[in-house]
Amino acid sequence: MSDILVQKLDEIEKMYNEYLVQTKNLSEEQFNFKPSENSWSLAQVLYHIWFAMDGTYLYINKKLSQNIEYKPSGFVHSIRSFGLNTVLHSSLKLKAPEYIKNNVIKHGTYEQISTLSEKTFQNFRLLLQTFPENLEGKEIFKHPIVGWVNISQALGFLKGHTVHHKMQIEALLKQV
Predict the structure, then answer these.
(1) pTM here?
(2) What distance in Å separates the CA atoms of residue 169 and residue 20, rounded to the nearest whole number?
(3) Pick from 73, 36, 68, 98: nearest CA to 148
(4) One digit per residue, pLDDT tens: the chain, 176 residues?
(5) Do 18 and 173 contact (CB within 8 A), yes or no?
(6) Cα–Cα–Cα angle for 88, 167, 160, rounded to 5 degrees
(7) Does residue 149 contact residue 72 with C-beta atoms inside 8 Å?
């Protein structure tokens, strides 16, 4: 187990929990307010961030249960991962893959999203605490845009993804 992996998850959880704290005292109506028909509410944004986190956890957990030969992640994986994280840390808007858009809730409560995320972070932490050290540099997660990445790169994506939605959350908070 790598303490660095757990630290990366801790950073993501801290950031996500800050978003939850910012929205805790909103009414359910405010939490689900959408400025326009084509935009997302705070509930939807927080759910979307959780959905990506949970999906990554579930995928990696499933891969670990399979008795397969893992390929090493290489230089190309690093370049792709770096490119994606650069875009995620910028103000550029990315189009979410269709299956992500199709899995956004219509309406959510703070309690529901808080409970879901807490459970996912607990499960992910347990996975990282028992993650085989010999697999840390191996292809373990297939990102929908950049392809195969190792566990550290997957966590880097999740951190960048969480950061990417910060401006969106701040803008929505000003409108509710």
Answers:
(1) 0.89
(2) 10
(3) 73
(4) 578 999 999 999 999 999 999 999 999 999 999 999 989 999 999 999 999 999 999 999 999 998 888 777 766 656 666 666 565 666 666 666 676 677 789 999 999 999 999 999 999 999 999 999 999 999 899 887 778 999 999 999 999 999 989 999 999 999 99
(5) no
(6) 25
(7) no
